[in-house]
Amino acid sequence: MRHEDIRLANASGVGNQVVLFGARTGGDGIGGASVLASESFDDTKKPSKRPAVQVGDPFAEKVLIECCLELFKGSVVEGIQDLGAAGISCATSELASNGEGGMHVDLTKVLLRDPTLTPGEILMSESQERMMAVVSPENVERFEAIMKKWGVEYSFLGEVTDTGRLTIEWDGQVIVDVDPRTVAHDGPTYERPYARPAGQDALQADHFTGSAADDARPRGEQLGEAIKAFMASPNMCSKSWITNQYDRYVQGNTALSMPDDSGVVRVDEHTNLGVALATDASPRFTYLDPYEGARASLAEAYRNVATVGARPVAVSDCLNFGSPEDPDVMWQFAEAVRGLADGCMELGVPVTGGNVSLYNQTGGKAINPTPVVAMMGVMDDVTRRTPSGWAPEHDGQAIYLLGTTRDELDGSEWARFKGHLGGLPRRLIWRLNVSLAICS
C-alpha cells in the first residue's frame, strides 16, 4: 500500500453515504473489550458480566483486506474505520467526530446474523471482519462493483450531515442524538489518587542472593541439571507448539519469524524494503520498579529490532494493570507511563498508538504490572537481515558478547525459577542501548 492510497477515519462531505460492509452483525463479542477492560473477576463467583467471545474468520478477513486495498487504490472511499471495541457505536462516533459535520444512521439497515438483537446490542456488537466507509454519491456504483467482485456484503446506513450531531434512529425513532466529540474525544478525565505502596521499599531491599556470592549455587553436574530444568520452565521453553499452528509464510514475504528476535516482513518485492516487529514485556521488573521496568521492556524491544538489522522508528503498547481504583496500582500505572515516555524521548521513537487494559485481577489481587511494548523498525533490504541462530556455514567464526555483564539477578527469570521476587531491576544505560543498536 502506497502513501497516496491511505484513507483516514473521518466523515466529511455533506451527502456522502455511510456504508457498513464485511461480515454480518451478530451477538458475538457484545461488550467484549469494553467490559473486559473494566471488570475484575473472582475465583468464587462468575463475573457480573459475561460477554460472548468474538468469532474470527481469517479467510473472510483476508478477503476484506484485499477488498479495502482495491477501494484505497481506486480512491473510492472518502474515509474508513474498522469496527473493533464497541462496534458501530465507536465507528460512527469516531468518524463523525473526526469529520467536519455530523452523521445520521438508520440502525434498521444493518445486516444481521441474529435477527433477535436489540438496538443496543447492534450498536455494541464486536463481530469481527467489519468496516465502515464514507462514499461520495458519484463513487457508489464503483464501490458496489468492488463489493460484488470480492463477494462482500454491504448496506448503506445513512449519510454525512451538516448538523454537527450524530443521530441514530431505530424503527423511525431517534435513539441517539449527541455531539460526536463528547463520545469519541471529550470523555471524562479521572484524577485517580495514587501513592507509592507502603511495602515498596521493603520489596526493593529484598535482593536475590542466588548470584556469584551464593555458595549454594549449582556447580558441575548440578549446574547442568539446573539449566535443563530452567529451560523447561514455562517462560523459557519452546513456544513452537503455538507458533507452528499458524502459517507465517503466507505470500512468501516473511523473511524472519519465530524463534528470531524480531519478525521481518518484506513489503516491496522490487526493492526488498521491509519492516521488523518485536514485542517485549518485563512484568517482574515492572513490579519491582514500574518506571525502570517499563523502560526495560522498551529497551529490549528496541534491541531486538536493531539486532536483525532494522532501524527502530515507532512504538505501540498494551498497558495491562489491575484496578486503577487502588492507589498502589494507579501509582504503578503512572510510573510505567512516565518510564515509557522518558524512554521514547531518549531513544527518539514516537508512540503511535496502543491500548490500556485495566482491572486485571482476581479476588482483589492484581496481576503484576505488564506494559507490553511493540517496536517497529524499517529495513532497506530484508535480504541483509541477521538471524539469531547459527548455521553450519558459521563454523569457526568467533562469538562476541557485547556490553557489560553485572551481578544483576533481581527480578530475573533465574530468580523466578528459584522462587524469589524482590530487589531492583537491572540498571539501564541508555547510551549503550543506542550504541548496541548502531553496532547491529
From TrEMBL:
Part of the phosphoribosylformylglycinamidine synthase complex involved in the purines biosynthetic pathway. Catalyzes the ATP-dependent conversion of formylglycinamide ribonucleotide (FGAR) and glutamine to yield formylglycinamidine ribonucleotide (FGAM) and glutamate. The FGAM synthase complex is composed of three subunits. PurQ produces an ammonia molecule by converting glutamine to glutamate. PurL transfers the ammonia molecule to FGAR to form FGAM in an ATP-dependent manner. The keyword Nucleotide-binding applies. Pathway: Purine metabolism; IMP biosynthesis via de novo pathway; 5-amino-1-(5-phospho-D-ribosyl)imidazole from N(2)-formyl-N(1)-(5-phospho-D-ribosyl)glycinamide: step 1/2. This is Phosphoribosylformylglycinamidine synthase subunit PurL. CDD domains: PurL_repeat2. ATP binds at D317, G354. One of its GO terms (molecular function) is magnesium ion binding. It comes from the Bacteria. Its main location: cytoplasm. Mg(2+) 2 binds at D82. Monomer. Part of the FGAM synthase complex composed of 1 PurL, 1 PurQ and 2 PurS subunits. Keywords: ATP-binding, Cytoplasm, Ligase, Magnesium, Metal-binding, Nucleotide-binding, Purine biosynthesis. Its EC number is 6.3.5.3. The keyword Membrane does not apply. It catalyses: N(2)-formyl-N(1)-(5-phospho-beta-D-ribosyl)glycinamide + L-glutamine + ATP + H2O = 2-formamido-N(1)-(5-O-phospho-beta-D-ribosyl)acetamidine + L-glutamate + ADP + phosphate + H(+). Belongs to the FGAMS family. Residues 260-379 form the PurM-like N-terminal domain. GO terms for cellular component: cytoplasm. GO terms for biological process: 'de novo' IMP biosynthetic process. It is found in: Cytoplasm. Residues 14-170 form the PurM-like C-terminal domain. Substrate binds at Q54, E126, S127, Q128, S357. Mg(2+) 1 binds at N355.
